[in-house]
Task: structure prediction
Amino acid sequence: MMSAVGAAVGLGNIWKFPYITGEYGGGAFVLVYLITVLLVGFSVMISEMLIGYMGRRDCVANFENLAPRHKSRWKYAGWMGLTGSLVMIYYSVVIGWIFHYITVALTQLPTNVKEAESVFGVMMTQSPGTQIFYHTIAFLITTAVVAKGIKGGIEKMNLILMPALMGILAVMFIYAITLDGFSQAYSYMFTPDWSKLTSEAFVSAVGHAFFTLSLGMGSIMVYSASLPKEGNMVHSSLFVIAGDTIIALVAGLVLFTFLFQYGAEPGKGPGLVFISLPAVFYEMGTIGNLFSVLFFIALAFAGLTSAVSLVEPMVQYLIDKFDMSRLKAAVAMGLFFYLFGIVAIFSQIEGNASYLTWGGKNFFDWADYMTSAVLLPIAGLAMAVFVGFVIEKERIVSVLKPQMGWFFPVWYFSVRYIAPVALVVVMLNLMGVIQF
Ligand code: TRP
Result:
């Protein structure tokens, strides 16, 4: 369970959630996001857990074994395990940035936003060496932990880093409450301004709900394959969803409090954490300096516990399918995202734009867009259809009814109709077929 929370709580919560909330204007987006998490996220999470719990193997074998017919076709749905390795192409690079920012926080924070922009810009567009160095560290840690296995590596890491992360956030949260900016941050996040809610915001909310809950690429599935038979999937998923949501909201409140307190802009995009925040930390003086170090350490912890979960499904598959040793499988997957990660780094370096950019997005952006906007929702749809219409209902009833009771029909309805419709609408919107 701690590993599933560790997988869920990641850069998505602390880096992405606050900045997309800022981009879409605050409260209304938060509300849509919370509703999506409950309506779509929860039902798909139970579906993904169920496939792992009933299948007990890697993603591909689970679909193959559980499908009553068309086994050879359904097994392709198991390829969703590959998505995690694609996410890792940029995720590991961002963890690298965070490592770099721990050193920035320890040595010299930028003294104003202009300087902060240049620190970030220089790192991203002019310093392939620095980025590769820290990306290498992220790759080595992730690979070493995955090579040690779920019990020996992943669980141990989560049991240490997750409480540390929560402790750091709690301290910062308590401090934030004492500041005047807190009430402003609170109303920014919880007072909906419907005029700012575009269809793009809705689509992002669904995409982000999947991303932040770690749905749609087999992380939750392979972890559930090791749930004890008497484990309760409803409790587990509510635990993960509550933990993930609370941490995202707390991180958002802390960051927005600091930003408002020092008059910085909330809608700064991906640079929010790397540009606005360091400058604000500088203005806060000694405590800001301390917080900046703690904050980037916490962010690195959040990133690493998610990174291992992104790699694990594919590693599991290689072990099951090709009888590879865990070490070999972990290194093979590691090298995959490591090498493409270097391409992602170069795609953002000044002067390279022309040959690593297609259709207005560079390779780094494509790795993000293809996964969050396309592959995760497709996999979510596949799982909802698989559980809602393909696996025999009696089998599902016998497993879930004792755990769910009266709630079972509500969940089953949502998996069959609400989640798939929401996901299809999102995809059609992304393809430009429908606009609303
Ligand atoms: N949920 C993590 C985050 O918020 C990222 C992540 C880990 C993830 N495992 C995943 C996203 C599986 C999608 C699928 O940063």
